[in-house]
Amino acid sequence: MSANALSKNVLGFLSRLKKNNNREWFGEHKKEFKEVEAEAKAFYHDLMEKMKEHDDIEKLKMFRIYRDVRFSKDKTPYQPHFAGSFSRAGAHLRGGYYLRIRPGESFIAAGFWEPNKEDIYRIRKEFEVDAASFRKVINNKKFKSVWGDLVGDGVKTAPKGFSKEDPNIDLIRKKQFIFVRNFKNSEVNAPGFIDEVNNSFKTIRPYFDLMSEILTTDLNGQSLLK
Question: Which single residue of 3, 40, 61, 71 has CA 20 to 30 Å from 99?
């Protein structure tokens, strides 16, 4: 199986792991896990090479299948999915990409998961002044057909120092700025899945360009990069 496609073995193994999420079963099927893990890693690395054709990707981080259960009520030891994030290179390129392969719950995401308080404040101040450019990008017909609506956690009313009557309060109250696209199992197993993911990530670029400009300049448009 080419790294450009995922065989049905990947979702098949993860489905069985979800039903048998214990160390005994996993130990008995460790060889099979290593095989599908190698296939998944090859897919992620091949995707990264495709992404480098339209963005400057610094690194890929693959997340381990082993769960940290120390502070969790869920004591199942394994994540029944493969997941990885792709980081953009340099302080001037902001935003990140994510892909999770999980039976019935596969998705890609792009945006800003945990922006620090300085970044959140800068974004909110931008929206307070004018959110027209931001809305134009996220409401673009092509963009919206791929990514849908902006999602992410937010405060219930208004952040400290901002008015709840602000016309852009729907954006100002956000704490995360994320877009998500879900995929069915049949789509994950399709030969063109890697291109569908790559093209979706390519479509997010105007959003990243705008947010990078906001986060690397002050309200007067002066660069914050040294």
Answer: 71
Residues 95-106 pLDDT 10s: 999 999 999 999
Q: What is the pLDDT of residue 3?
A: 61
C-alpha span between 60 and 220 (Å, rounded): 34
What is the distance between the alpha carbons of residues 169 and 127, in angstroms, rounded to a whole number? 8
The whole model's pTM is what?
0.94
- Distance in angstroms (rounded) separating the CA atoms of residues 88 and 115: 15
- Predicted confidence (pLDDT) at residue 169 exceeds the cutoff of 80: yes
In the chain, the amino acid numbered 32 is E
Contact 110, 209 (CB under 8 A): no
- Phi and psi, residue 45, nearest 5°: -70, -35
| CA–CA separation, 110 and 85 (whole Å) | 9
Q: What one-letter code names the amino acid at 31?
A: K
**Given a cut of 90, is residue 93 above it in pLDDT?**
yes
Torsion of CA 202, 203, 207, 210, to 10 degrees: 70
What integer is the mean pLDDT of 38-42?
A: 97
For 5-64, the DSSP string reads S--HHHHHHHHHHHHT-SHHHHHHTHHHHHHHHHHHHHHHHHHHHHHTTTS-EEEEEEPP
CA distance 141 to 134: 14
Q: Dump pLDDT digits (tens) for 212-222.
A: 999 999 999 99
Q: How many beta carbons lie within 10 A of that of residue 37, not counting itself?
A: 15
What is the DSSP secondary structure assignment for residue 100, as one 8-state letter? E
> Vertex 133, ends 132 and 135: CA angle to 5°?
65
